[in-house]
Amino acid sequence: MVDITKVSFNPALITMLPASLAIKKLLLPCAVIDETVYVLSADPESHKPSELERYFGKKIKLEKTEPLGLREKIKLFYSSSTKKVPGTDQNEVIRLTDEIIFAAVSRSASDIHINPKEEKVFIRLRMSGQLETYKTLPIHSYNGLISRFKILSGMNIAEKRSPQDGKLVYKVPGSNQKVDIRAATIPCINGEKMTLRLLGLNSDSLTLEKIGMSPDHLKIYQEEVQRDNGMILINGATGSGKSTSLYASLRHILELKDVNIITVEDPVEYQIDDVIQVNVDESDKVTFPSALKSILRHDPDVIMIGEIRDAETANIAIKSSLTGHLVLSSLHANSASAAVVRLADIGIEPYMIASTLRVSIAQKLVRKLCQTCRKQTRLSKEEALLLGVEELDGSIIYQKHGCLYCGGSGYSGRIPVFEVLRINNSFKKLIHSGLSDETLRNEMHQRNIPSMFDDAITKMTNGLIDFQECYSTVGSI
Ligand SMILES: [Zn+2]
Question: Fewer Cβ neighbours under 10 Å: the N or C end of the chain?
Answer without folding.
Answer: N
